[in-house]
Amino acid sequence: MVNKMVKRIFILLIMSIIFLIIGYLIATFISNCVDDSIKDVMLLEGIATVLITLACITKGDSLNLNIEGLGVGDKTHATLEAIKQERDLKWNFSNLKNNSTIKLAFNSLSILLGGIFMILFSVFFA
Asked: Which pairs count as long-range contacts for 35-41, CB under 8 Å and 24+ apart, including other chains?
């Protein structure tokens, strides 16, 4: 179990570094075309990558809430349906993880870390 987790983290870091290198190459190309410093281009590229990745990796789930009864005079059916669905769920960690409101895709975390690494690289090293 620990070995599998270490392997996943290692792959995540390797992919993040690959995204950092790709971002550096793209920033070098853009800075040559625009005549701007690579530090500024890489900072903007990192911020854009982080914002776009955060917007793309969040997946919403309403925890099986039913909104059919909203706006209708008889709201008890919707309330009873919500109570029934709530009782049907088994509240343990795995079910909460599967039915949570925000799920993060593991592969997209490497892109997110790559964007963070781009920002850090542009601030401290470029």
From this structure: 37/126, 38/122, 38/126, 39/122, 39/126, 40/122
Structure token digits, residue 101: 């409101």
Q: Summarize pLDDT for 9-23 with one digit per residue, the tens.
A: 888 888 888 888 999
pTM exceeds 0.70: no
Which ranges of the chain does DSSP label H, i.e. alpha helix? 2-34, 38-57, 76-88, 93-98, 106-124
Q: Which residues contact 122 (CB under 8 A, 6 or more apart)?
A: 38, 39, 40, 42, 43, 46
Distance CA 96, CA 61 (A): 11
| Whole-number Å distance between alpha carbons of 41 and 29 | 10
